[in-house]
Amino acid sequence: xxxxxxxxxxxxxxxxxxxxxxxxxxxxxxxxxxxxxxxxxxxxxxxxxxxxxxxxxxxxxxxxxxxxxxxxxxxxxxxxxxxxxxxxxxxxxxxxxxxxxxxxxxxxxxxxxxxxxxxxxxxxxxxxxxxxxxxxxxxxxxxxxxxxxxxxxxxxxxxx
Amino acid sequence: xxxxxxxxxxxxxxxxxxxxxxxxxxxxxxxxxxxxxxxxxxxxxxxxxxxxxxxxxxxxxxxxxxxxxxxxxxxxxxxxxxxxxxxxxxxxxxxxxxxxxxxxxxxxxxxxxxxxxxxxxxxxxxxxxxxxxxxxxxxxxxxxxxxxxxxxxxxxxxxxxxxxxxxxxxxxxxxxxxxxxxxxxxxxxxxxxxxxxxxxxxxxxxxxxxxxxxxxxxxxxxxxxxxxxxxxxxxxxxxxxxxxxxxxxxxxxxxxxxxxxxxxxxxxxxxxxxxxxxxxxxxxxxxxxxxxxxxxxxxxxxxxxxxxxxxxxxxxxxxxxxxxxxxxxxxxxxxxxxxxxxxxxxxxxxxxxxxxxxxxxxxxxxxxxxxxxxxxxxxxxxxxxxxxxxxxxxxxxxxxxxxxxxxxxxxxxxxxxxxxxx
Lengths: 160, 422
Prior knowledge:
The structure holds two protein chains of two kinds.
Chain A: H1 2-8, H2 11-18, E1 31-37, E2 42-50, E3 56-64, H3 67-80, H4 85-100, H5 114-120, H6 133-148, E4 156-158
Parallel strand pairs in A: 1-4
Antiparallel strand pairs in A: 1-2, 2-3
Chain B: H1 3-7, H2 12-17, H3 21-26, E1 34-35, E2 38-39, E3 41-42, H4 53-65, H5 76-96, E4 104-107, H6 110-125, E5 131-135, H7 144-153, E6 156-160, H8 170-176, E7 181-187, H9 199-208, E8 213-216, H10 228-231, E9 235-239, E10 250-254, H11 256-260, E11 272-275, E12 280-282, H12 296-312, H13 314-333, E13 338-341, E14 350-355, H14 360-368, E15 372-373, E16 375-377, H15 382-387, E17 393-397, H16 404-421
Parallel strand pairs in B: 3-15, 5-6, 5-7, 7-8, 8-9
Antiparallel strand pairs in B: 1-2, 4-10, 9-10, 11-12, 13-14, 14-17, 16-17
Helix pairs in contact in B: 4-12, 5-12, 6-7, 13-16, 14-16
């Protein structure tokens, strides 16, 4: 029992869950979206500062939720800083596939930063916990919405 | 059970002792299941209760021996099915202490029952500026239908506050009642906190001003004897699946004159007296509100669930569950970093809690690995969560088949949460 639970709750997840990185609202943020999981009440806002060339200069988030959703958001912001918008989209596709599809571990795509791929593997354990997949992907869907609806329109997503 | 606790047993426990939980557990086939290699400890009864063999068998027997559509055929099967179906209505009427079976309207669940009242009574009687009083600890199903009516008609929602322990604030409620109040819609027992609302006083205060009262009894009927006439409730709703019966069946009790004064809900077959293309006349309650083929087997299952509870005696169930609540409260309170959310003076066997080291979802996932099923989330009562400043709680809600040993299993499983997150 403990082995399976430790596979889900790896030390790095517990650490990010308890001490989320980039838990703030950057003053230069120009992309922002709000994500909500109505099933459980998890809620977070992702902030991005993206320059004209599409480089992500800063990424941060605020919100509340379980260890999985907080850790996923925290790790995502660390990985996104310094990436381009195009790379963020590739990471989003790879990460959501990894969380939902058996055998998908992001490593097959040569466009993805191998360091990011390695770091995100710790969240692959959610595949074995179907009801927790949305916890891991909430921040990523929210980030994706911040890019697809950049200026106006409804910048809120829900997992349902 | 530890010795200290045994010493605190009260007079109610004598009644509880007459209650043989091990015999009862044998009636519920699912309780012998294992989850992750551990015996199932089912503590999510507030969401839905498990079904005794008697309910399962009654529904199977209907399909195997007596099934046809009701109120239609002259043939024998239709008559048998109609008799079984209407027997379910009679049992429900007796169970609630209704004056007549005509006061029992079947719906899909408590949610539809409340929506029915909003769509018929609400839409025909309330106008812009009229006020509906609800409480801060309503389930979303007793908030959203009134908000929809507000958006349609311009009525005003007034919310009775709860105190820091989760007690319904009767004085504040009395002050909210005024000449514009046209309906009070309150829960009997909070699904998120377990608080019991002082309904007799609530209804008395409303009736002094001739205001009708709707009660959401979902969490009450499985745990205590309810008598709608003693309460003098105008409407009382509950769901079958929380009462050890099937899903897809709910009950709207309404005083007969009140129901007959209301327009129909949905139009269709079985609710009409006569139809021509020029004019249709409607049946009286309850059939006026039951368009289409009803949930026949589910009503039979609900009747079997009521029979099951009747032979156990709900007063004995209530006493037994009070013992479970006291034991769970003591054991959980002793856990370092655990806070019970909702400590009302009068509580049903529901314990909502948070832990400082872990979010409710993580608690739910971890205890599941010990076979313990609890609810984690906002319990469809987000305003309650906001009131207590939390986004979610873990909730153990007990039923008549739960044991102190299962509470010990929960406490042990929470030790694993500490081990991982502490």
